[in-house]
Amino acid sequence: MECVLRGSMMRVLIVCSWGMSTSLLVESMLSAAAAQHIELHVEALSAGEYTAQVDMCDVVLIAPQIRHLRKSIEKIAHSVNKPVAMIEPFHYATMDGEAVLKQVLRLLPA
Fold this sequence. Notes:
The chain is α/β, with parallel strands linked by helices and 110 residues long. It contains four helices and five strands. The protein has a single domain, classed as Response regulator (Rossmann fold). Helix 1 links the parallel strand 2 and strand 3 (40-46). Helix 1 (22-35) crosses helix 4. InterPro entries: PTS_EIIB-like_sf, PTS_EIIB_2/3, PTS_EIIB_3, PTS_sugar-specific_EIIB. Keywords: Kinase, Phosphoprotein, Phosphotransferase system, Sugar transport, Transferase, Transport. Residues 9-110 form the PTS EIIB type-3 domain.
C-alpha cells in the first residue's frame, strides 16, 4: 500500500504475525503521511516472509506481538544496513499511524 505525493518515497516494512491488525495501522500511517505530503510505501509481512524484502526497504519495524523475534529480525536488518525498531505497543494498540510515522522519520538519516 502506498501514498504517493512529492519528494522521495519512503519504504517501510512492518514485520508482524499475520498482518490482520497491522493492515489497519498501515492505513493509518498512509493517512498521516498524506496529510504531511510525505510519499510512503508500507508493507506488512509475516516473520516468515519478510527476509526477501528487507533489502528493498528503508526502515524495518517490528510489531509488538512478535517481540520475541526481535534479535533475529535486527540481525537480518542490520546485515543490510537498515534501521530497525519495535513499534511502541500503545501506538500499535491504538493504531496511531501518525506516531508510528514519526518513529520512522526519526530512524531515517537526515
